[in-house]
Amino acid sequence: MPFRVVHDWHVRTVAPLLTQASVRCGADGEDQEGVRRLHSRALAGERVTETEWAGALVPALTEVYRRAYPYADAHAAASAGAHAYAMDNDYGEERAAEFASFYAELNTDANARSFADANALANGRALAAAFADADEHALADAYPFAYVHACALAVARADGAGEGWPGRYRAACERLADGLADSVGRGAS
After folding, report:
1. pLDDT for the residue 189
2. Residues of the chain with pLDDT > 90: what percent?
3. Hey, which end of the chain has fewer CB within 10 Å, N or C?
4. What global pTM score does this model have?
5. Centroid of chain to Cα 92
6. In the prediction, which pLDDT does 122 show?
7. What is the DSSP string of the chain?
């Protein structure tokens, strides 16, 4: 499969979905648009350096991984654990609730930030090298399924939390898959 299929898919499907998710979550979408512009340049045959790719990918992926992080679930688990600890140590209900809320916010914010930063840095550099060299083996080594999974999670979480979560995630996966199929069709012709 020609590597231009990868660029086409990002231009037509991945970046627009991530930009929409970004805007729905209150950001301007510019980080995602920056990556889309690089894919457009590469699709047009222009050489994009690894440094340019990394400069665009790392902030865009930081946003993707931040949105992909299961914040609500992690916050609930941290809150429940902190509340149980506080109750076991005679904080009393009111102080236990305050402690649990404070702890859960600090803990979950730090974990989400670390998750996003570490994944964006590692995957941004790996993808930058793959994209710069149009190297399908380097792309495969960058764990594309994990990247696509994070994109689908980010899109689904931007659509809301709670009821309907499996359907939103499935819909995001289907949009990504349909876009890839379209890009493969264009790349084969």
Report:
1. 58
2. 87
3. C
4. 0.90
5. 40
6. 93
7. --THHHHHHIIIIIHHHHHHHHHHTTS--HHHHHHHHHHHHHHTT----HHHHHHHHHHHHHHHHHHHS-HHHHHHHHHHHHHHHHHHTT--HHHHHHHHHHHHHHHHHHHHHHHHHHHHHHHHHHHHHHHHHT-HHHHHHT-HHHHHHHHHHHHHHHT-SSTTHHHHHHHHHHHHHHHHHHHHHHHH-
